[in-house]
Design a protein that fits this description.
By secondary structure, the chain is α+β, with helices and mostly antiparallel strands. Helices cover about 45% and strands about 10% of the residues.
């Protein structure tokens, strides 16, 4: 992510509108700055959201109100991040599985992934043994997220999360919590968070963890006494494995099987309605939805997911709990499928070279 070597540490760890408090925006040149006035209204029930956040950080965590006010005054509004987090309804999303897959399964990413594997083979095996998550899945996630640390984001994380926390994103509560967690990460790690860069949503480092995930799931896997997901590939690997393990990964289970749809059957009836398996192989088989490779046990808990193809019939996978564990990282089925396919591809190549 950034070239600074910084340590993260973990610990346990979110609107009311107002009338009188003023929230000014000062425009200087081409940059927009948040400006929070020195004098805050203290009357109950009449607090600006920014003032309330500062008040809460002081009450809950002992942060200096004057220091936070001063820090927030220097922040630039991240208009590009705001736009990316509020895509236009007319903005087209990729609804073509082969096109989406090929963003990640290309020669450059695969070559970089192979280099990453050979640098970290022992670490990947150790993480797999400890957490039960196969190396190929860890490889797939880190490859899809940041191309193995090559693309980690160029947004100033404090400015970005502040923008998203107090502008209209329809997820202000979520981002306000992440801003809180970021400030705690900075204090606990003695880290200057004003220098850190992130994704447009505030995700950090090689595995693209949100601040709350850093505090909850990041681990010191290289055993150097600090947690550093910005620069330590070992810590990134261990942290991703720990994250999946804590989000339901079942040791030894598969992620999916390709579905064979019998003529006359209705697969849409059995599509997953949430990110959890809700059927069994036997039930799907009785509905004419078959495990093409016959690799899943008959009582395996599964659901059907679809991978759309432009101008062609959709591809269907029978997805297990492990597939849905990957969607805890990103709720997209195509994301999880790309993780799996990239990991499988690199695993196949390093085992044959």
């Amino acid at each position: 992510m950034t070239t600074q070597c910084q340590a993260f540490s973990k610990s346990s760890v979110t609107n009311r509108n107002q009338r009188n408090f003023q929230f000014h925006i000062v425009i200087i040149a081409f940059a927009s700055f948040f400006f929070v006035e020195e004098s805050f209204s203290r009357t109950a029930g009449d607090k600006n959201q920014v003032e309330q956040f500062i008040f809460d950080m002081n009450r809950k965590h002992g942060f200096s109100k004057s220091n936070l006010t001063k820090k927030f005054r220097q922040l630039k509004i991240q208009k590009r991040a705001l736009k990316l987090n509020n895509p236009s309804k007319n903005q087209k999303k990729i609804r073509d599985w082969p096109k989406y897959r090929d963003i990640f399964l290309n020669a450059r990413v695969i070559s970089t992934g192979k280099e990453f594997f050979f640098r970290n083979e022992k670490t990947l095996k150790r993480a797999s043994k400890l957490y039960g998550v196969p190396s190929k899945i860890l490889m797939g996630i880190i490859g899809v997220e940041t191309r193995y640390g090559k693309v980690t984001g160029d947004f100033p994380v404090l400015d970005t999360l502040f923008t998203l926390a107090f502008e209209n994103t329809r997820r202000e509560v979520f981002f306000r919590n992440e801003l809180e967690q970021l400030l705690l990460v900075g204090r606990e790690s003695k880290l200057d968070i004003t220098t850190l860069k992130s994704s447009f949503a505030g995700a950090l480092g090689i595995p693209q963890f949100m601040p709350s995930s850093i505090r909850s799931f990041a681990v010191d896997f290289d055993r150097d006494g600090k947690v550093d997901i910005l620069n330590s590939e070992s810590d990134a690997i261990g942290s991703v494995a720990n994250y999946l393990s804590k989000h339901g990964w079942e040791r030894g289970d598969l992620t999916h099987a390709v579905a064979l749809i019998a003529v006359g059957s209705n697969p849409t009836k059995y599509l997953a309605k949430n990110l959890t398996p809700s059927h069994s192989i036997n039930l799907l088989r009785s509905a004419g939805i078959l495990d093409k490779s016959k690799v899943l046990p008959p009582n395996q808990a599964v659901s059907l997911i679809d991978l759309p193809r432009k101008n062609k019939k959709d591809i269907y996978w029978i997805a297990t709990k492990n597939f849905f564990s990957i969607t805890m990282y990103n709720r997209s089925y195509m994301y999880a499928a790309a993780v799996i396919k990239l990991g499988e591809r690199i695993s196949a190549e390093v085992n044959t070279n």
